[in-house]
Amino acid sequence: MADAGPTPGSAPARAPVRSLVTLPPQVRRGEPFEVRLLVAHPMETGHRADSLGQRVPRDIVRRIECRLDGELVFAADLQAAIAANPYVTFPLVVAGEGTLVVSWAGDRGFAHSTSVAVGPL
């Protein structure tokens, strides 16, 4: 028997979260560099209708936080106007080695985090 898909009122199954944090190949102490963030997310505004004319519930990434060794170094509150698969960049300056932890949180229980080592020359 074929799967008929989600039952009415149930949330669709989510694909595994894909995210990417990109740093330059070489980072120098005390010099600014660009951190690039990308997360795969549909960013539904809540204003679109599906093929049956039913409103698709809002489902957006609401907050991005970046912490270097526990200290908040960047945060952004996103709104419904952001496109699918949000891409964000910001400058960062580091004094030494550390771990950058990036966390995304949003509607419908969406939460994801990833970390990357920062090792300046």
Look at the structure and name the CATH superfamily. Answer: Immunoglobulins
Task: Supply the CATH architecture.
Answer: Sandwich
SSE order, as H and E? EEEEEEE
Name of the CATH first level:
Mainly Beta
Strand content: 35-45%
| Mean pLDDT reading | 88
Provide a quick synopsis of the model.
The chain is mostly beta strands.
Please outline the helices and strands.
Layout: E1 19-22, E2 33-39, E3 61-68, E4 71-77, E5 87-92, E6 98-106, E7 111-118
Notes on the structure:
The structure is a single chain. The protein is an all-beta fold and 121 residues long. It has one domain (19-46, 55-118): Sandwich (Immunoglobulin-like). It contains no helices and 7 strands. The strands form 2 sheets. The chain has a 4-stranded antiparallel sheet, with no helix packed on it. The protein has a 3-stranded antiparallel sheet with strand order 1-2-5, with no helix packed on it. A hairpin with a 4-residue loop joins strand 6 (98-106) and strand 7 (111-118). The chain is elongated, with a radius of gyration of 18 Å. The protein starts with 18 loop residues before the first strand and ends with a strand. Mean pLDDT is 88; it is low at 1-11.
